[in-house]
UniProtKB/TrEMBL annotation:
It comes from Paenibacillus chitinolyticus. Keywords: Cell membrane, Membrane, Transmembrane, Transmembrane helix, Transport. The keyword Transferase does not apply. One of its GO terms (cellular component) is plasma membrane. Its main location: membrane. Residues 85-269 form the ABC transmembrane type-1 domain. This is ABC transporter permease. PANTHER family: ABC TRANSPORTER PERMEASE PROTEIN MJ0413-RELATED, ALKANE SULFONATE ABC TRANSPORTER-RELATED, MEMBRANE SUBUNIT.
């Protein structure tokens, strides 16, 4: 053996191990940090603009963020704000849930049965252009001024949006999938259960989320006209005392209620319905 060749080899050098610290990117280069920073800058700029406009037009016309916060604290101290938020949320969630539960099977039946669809589709396309607020007076006559008329109004606002989205989903199912299921001996009920419903779930979910926004619009109109409780009543009644700060408090509460509810529904959809292709939040993770 040539010992000189062995001793002539270069010494073995070891590189330092790669750790998380050695590949860590600067914080400012991380996407989530950039998004958070931009959001923070946007909200600060919006508050500054709001405050500047309030100085121009005066607090009686446009109360600034500080006066609005003081008005909100005043309503919180009285205990009315949380009560009104709870009442409006209860009405919206009840009517929205009932409307969705009724609309989904109705949409599936209309989409699956051609004879029913031929009769129902023109009616749906006609009545969907009538806003829910237009029915407030009729519902008050039919169901009284209590909770029933308000819940039914929200149910109406939810029903047609979810039905139309479900119907669209059923009609969008590829005919080849249905024929393949039939060729393998599947019954019509099995086709509905294992082919049509899974393919229609994203459309149903979209309709449910869209109906949530319409439900909030409907309940505010109902509470303004025929109610002595709720966020809509707070906004409408504040005009009598010329408390524009309370009006802004009600508007902010509505936005927060809708935002929180929508995010909660989106989170549930992403967790429970991801296998059906439901993404969840708009602009969320893909």
């Amino acid at each position: 053996m040539n010992t000189n060749a062995i001793t002539a080899k270069k010494p073995i050098t070891t590189k330092p191990p790669i750790t998380a610290a050695s590949v860590r990117k600067p914080l400012i280069r991380k996407p989530w940090f950039k998004k958070t920073l931009l959001t923070l800058v946007f909200w600060i700029a919006g508050l500054l603009l709001w405050h500047g406009l309030s100085l121009v037009y005066g607090p009686e016309i446009l109360p600034g963020p500080i006066l609005t916060a003081e008005g909100g604290y005043e309503l919180l101290a009285e205990g009315t704000l949380l009560q009104y938020i709870g009442i409006s949320s209860y009405r919206v969630l009840l009517g929205w849930t009932l409307g969705s539960l009724i609309a989904i099977p109705v949409g599936l039946v209309i989409g699956k049965v051609g004879a029913i669809r031929a009769f129902a589709e023109p009616f749906l396309n006609f009545i969907r252009f009538i806003p829910p607020i237009a029915f407030i007076t009729l519902f008050l006559v039919w169901f009284g001024i209590g909770e029933t008329s308000k819940v039914v109004l929200i149910l109406y606002a939810t029903f047609f949006i979810v039905v139309l989205n479900t119907l669209t989903g059923v009609l969008a199912v590829e005919e080849d999938k249905i024929r393949s299921a039939r060729s393998m001996g599947a019954s019509e009920w099995q086709i509905v259960l294992h082919v049509i419903i899974p393919a229609t779930v994203p459309y149903m979910f979209t309709g449910i989320r869209l109906a949530m926004g319409t439900s909030f619009m409907a309940i505010i109109g109902a509470e303004m006209i025929a109610s002595n409780e709720g966020v809509g009543y707070l906004i409408w009644n504040s005009r009598l005392f010329f408390r524009t700060d309370w009006i802004f408090v009600g508007l902010i509460c509505l936005g927060l209620m809708g935002f929180i509810t929508d995010r909660a529904v989106a989170l549930l959809g992403r967790k429970l319905l991801a296998r059906y292709g439901v993404v969840g939040a708009v602009g969320g993770r893909r």
